[in-house]
């Protein structure tokens, strides 16, 4: 398929879905993460276990949920548990393999801000929703996948507030802080994929989506973006992936 | 045994100016009608506690009921920002709003500690984030057995917790099911509690996944059919997703917001 047949957001969602291995347990938020996880479930990963922080373990919705507490999640779950139980029994001990996070700002070490932008904490230029479940998802999941559109405003040299820790100031910080999960292994954007350099913990461009150039990725990054030696190009969405994604998205419009 | 009351009497008796008030509900079973009654009765200086302050807290904040917010995520789920919350934080309108900001795991554990009669909660959380710099109630404690440093947070003990549930029997035993969030813990952590229900029934037939709150652990129960709208009550109503989308435009502008509150909350002729 040629680039004209699909959008950058569709490529981003497909790339995120491909990242999820069948049989793993995935902590999902609403929006792009939920779309990607459900796309994986209806394509290559029917045994993917979706955990929503509202307490729905193993939800199998046949349409995209509109909120974290959508009734379809409770109706199709293996179990519905309390919110304290989600965080204490399931997330904290390391029972979740993959945590999906979004970001309003992301820095070169994968630290995430969803709290305030500009000004000071007490008097911010922009007040964002805040932490939600993210700090502990970032700390305790086996690995974190970040899905975020790439721009200089978002991919910033330094985040204004650390809501969720990636690699801190560099390698070794997670261990020093006692964070048990692996941290952000993959950042999927509308331009490509970034992964941390094992030596420096710095996010490095490892894959581009078809039709995107390194220059475009650099222009959308607020720090001097390192490019991996073995930079590759993602396979475009297959007709099956695209059909499944569009069918899922149509369920959003069909829900009153 | 819980007292059976009207919503207006329940709020008048149990929610006072300056109280620490928790209205809980995780997308499902949000006690909107009770929040509207708090606005109608003109409560002021409340410390509002809630994991996910969404549209109902946006309304309470914009109506001037709150001076403090204890929370972990403030947004319109699936839609975007809360404009009244943002206006209060960024421009002190209609009044300054002091924030005590946590994470979901932290808030949930603080309710558990409150319900358990413990002074503090312990968890692995917040480490390395900027939250402890700004939130004085995030501290650490060393495990007496392993020496590991863990996060400690004070228990939440609201003066009053308000939740919505499917139904209650005639003596005020409350039954809820579906996504029940942190409601049980929030009720048991509070000094007083008010539960609004869709209906009273003679007998609570068991339902899979139910949570039952004994009437003797609740202060008062009020019958408020549709009391969770635009949120939903599993088995009784579906979520009014259009309202959540519409709220974005209603709440963006101060005058539009005030007109909406006047029409749909302050006068009950056109209930929200």
UniProtKB/TrEMBL annotation, chain A:
Keywords: Transferase. Pfam families: CoA_trans. This is Glutaconate CoA-transferase subunit B. InterPro entries: CoA_trans_fam_I, NagB/RpiA_transferase-like. One of its GO terms (molecular function) is CoA-transferase activity. Belongs to the 3-oxoacid CoA-transferase subunit B family. It comes from the Bacteria. It comes from Micromonospora haikouensis.
TrEMBL record, chain B:
One of its GO terms (molecular function) is CoA-transferase activity. Keywords: Transferase. It comes from the Bacteria. InterPro entries: CoA_trans_fam_I (IPR004165), NagB/RpiA_transferase-like (IPR037171). Belongs to the 3-oxoacid CoA-transferase subunit B family. PANTHER family: ACETATE COA-TRANSFERASE YDIF, CHOLESTEROL RING-CLEAVING HYDROLASE IPDB SUBUNIT. This is Glutaconate CoA-transferase subunit A. It comes from Micromonospora haikouensis.
